[in-house]
Amino acid sequence: MPREKIDLEQDIEYLSILNEKGEIDEDLEPDMKDDLLLDLHRAMLFGRRFDERMLNLQRGGKMGTFAPIKGQEAAQLGAVACLEDKDWLVPSFRETAAEIWRGKRPKNILLAYAGFSEGGVIPKGINNLPAAIPVGTQTLHAAGIGYGIKFKGKKQVVMTFFGDGATSEGDFHEALNFAGVFNTPTIFVCQNNHWAISINRSRQSKSKTLAQKAIAYGIPGIQVDGNDVLAVYAAAKEAVERARNGEGPTFIECVTYRMSVHTTADDPKRYRSDEEVEKWEKRDPISRFQKYLKRKDLLSDEEIKEIESEIKDEIKKIVKGWEKKKKELEGRVEMFEGTFAELPAYLVEQKEEFESELPEKPEKPEDAKKQEAAEEDEEEAAEEAGEEGDDEDEKAEAEEEPEADEESEE
Amino acid sequence: MAKLTMVQAINLALHQEMEKDEDVVVLGEDVGIDGGVFRVTDGLIDKFGEERVMDTPLAESGITGFSIGMAIYGLKPVCEMQFSGFGYMAMHQLEAHAARMRARSGGRFHVPMVIRMPYGGGVKALEHHSESREAYWAHTPGLKMVIPSTPRNARALLVSAIRDPDPVVFYEPKSSYRAFREEVPEGEETIPIGQSEIVREGEDLTLISYGAMMRPTLEAAEILEEEDGVQCEVIDLMTISPIDDSKFTESAKKTGRVVLVHEAPRSFGPGAEIIARLVEKSFLYLEAPIRRVTGYDVVIPLFQREFDYLPSAERIMRAARETLDF
Hints:
The structure holds two protein chains of two kinds. By secondary structure, chain A is α/β, with parallel strands linked by helices. The longest helix of chain A has 30 residues, at 301-330. Chain A has a single domain (13-314), classed as Thiamin diphosphate (ThDP)-binding fold, Pyr/PP domains (Rossmann fold). Chain A has helices at residues 34-59, 73-80, 96-101, 106-113, 138-152, 170-181, 201-204, 213-216, 229-244, 274-281, 285-295, 301-330, 345-357, 366-385, 391-399; strands at 13-15, 88-90, 158-163, 186-192, 195-196, 199-200, 221-225, 250-255. In chain A, the strands form two sheets. Chain A has a six-stranded parallel β-sheet, sandwiched between helices. Chain A has a two-stranded antiparallel sheet with strand order 5-6. In chain A, helix 1 runs antiparallel to helix 11 and helix 5 (138-152) packs parallel to helix 6 (170-181). By secondary structure, chain B is α/β, with parallel strands linked by helices. Chain B contains twelve helices and 14 strands. Chain B has helices at 6-20, 44-48, 60-73, 91-98, 101-104, 134-138, 151-163, 214-228, 246-255, 270-282, 306-309, 313-325, and strands spanning 2-4, 24-28, 53-55, 76-80, 114-119, 144-146, 168-173, 182-184, 197-200, 205-209, 232-236, 239-241, 258-265, 291-295. Chain B has a seven-stranded mixed β-sheet, with helices on both faces. Chain B has a five-stranded mixed β-sheet with strand order 9-11-10-13-14, with helices on both faces. Chain B starts with a strand and ends with a helix. At the A-B interface, helix 5, helix 6, helix 13 and helix 15 of A face helix 3, helix 4 and helix 5 of B.
């Protein structure tokens, strides 16, 4: 009848590969192609600049509340960079850069935050769930999708994101537990950015790390420097490979920092010091990655300038396209359609009642319509050439019956 | 045709739908090896294996959110809340996600899942095992809410619920689980969700009910015929949401007098919605105030007094006679 230590067969590691000075631990350096490194750099920079532009639009009264990602570019992009197109992403509301990496159109992100549901449309073939607002709830969907993947015998994985605050929610624990029990190919990525609005990480849990919560569910857990894109990538890569090989879920805690506001409705000066923010600015994920890329001769200051200028133009074009789309949508009312596959009789009645109360709009003369259509085509052609896509096609695609993964099968 | 209890009829629906469609998966607490605490899922695990009949951890929100993920991926989960009194843990997932996913994703994703829950009083159960809170679910846009009343319609409605492309909350009247048997055809039978039924025709008074309360309602209708010579028209809603008001508003135009019955608390209950629609659509035909025979707006008493709380044939007859005499 002993009293002895129980061997849990599990430790929690901390992984950091690239420090804030741009120095690297070569033994840990992940094997990444130059193109991928440069794509990641561009996506991180785009994420930062797009975020700044959105803040600017919000402050100018053109857009509603949103959650900036500033400082968390590495934590989210390093992780989604390990996914294949056929895989699934289950985001929360602070994964703009990750969503764009996975094919979400920036224009649609702007539309959604400007209050148009049309921005939420997810085109067929892109396996991203809409951003979940109720904290932590989406983690269960990732567990369930993982079960679906396993059930159908597919070689896909599913990755979900959430913050340190979410680890206090019951759904997070239930998700880890279900994923563990049913051994689903689910990667749980916690962006521990230290602040859940005004509540510090220390108030969410007494545990030394969040990563160690994995131990309670019998799944691998790791803590990584979330501002080190190489460390995030390396940890996520291992987790994705495990999941794809049928070895089940992983919990990754990315230690990062929310350098901006919680949402545009928040004033962080009420709860944290400037010194703390300055300390984290020195650990910025983008500048250290640039140091690394320069040292590898993959990037020069001149090239960074060029990329910055390209991104500026691209965002300008996106915002222009968005402004135009907004005008077009302002006259349209879509509210009843998405409630059920078929409208029940009482909703048809309500829709008719609503429409009968709308002010009558004068019909546009045929010529004006044609002119508009021509302009639209031109813009679409221009967008095709750039990063932007064709919203109308997306809409048509999205209206088809979704077949979970037909397109993305191996 | 076999004479089945409601438990057997629901079990038959699950067996047949699982045979027919490999994407149908049953999950919940004790639904596998144990066959469910009411034995509704009995025998499924032997036939379909534990991949399709999943004993889950004890976590109602977890079961629901996990099912939402499965449904988005393309499976058709039928999950069980062991008792509706524990189903409130599922509410956040259902309200925030299952009910909204179609709208939020612009139609890309939808959530074809069924959440079965035994509900209601009358079986001398513990606290939290006897409530009838269908209004919570029916009040949620994007959710469907179905309550069968007999073995045959339970089977046919569950088949429709499983095939429905949107999330359906399926309340099972546990006091009717084994209370009586009914002929249930072996071959396929469905009843469209969103359709009520006139189960007894009459000219004098309209009685509206659903679920477990259909039995005292029909009993009252029979006694009223025998003792008072009154012909009651009895309507079984079967679907609470989307509600079918076509039959009861027409019936009220014919009879001019309406009594409605549910065991849910009165205030803001389904009866309030029914009356609102009667006022909107049948007002000029009404010859007496509409009466509600319902549970009271109190915490449902422990079982020694639950029959004082639940509507009975006597209470229904009293309300009916007062309405007829108005």
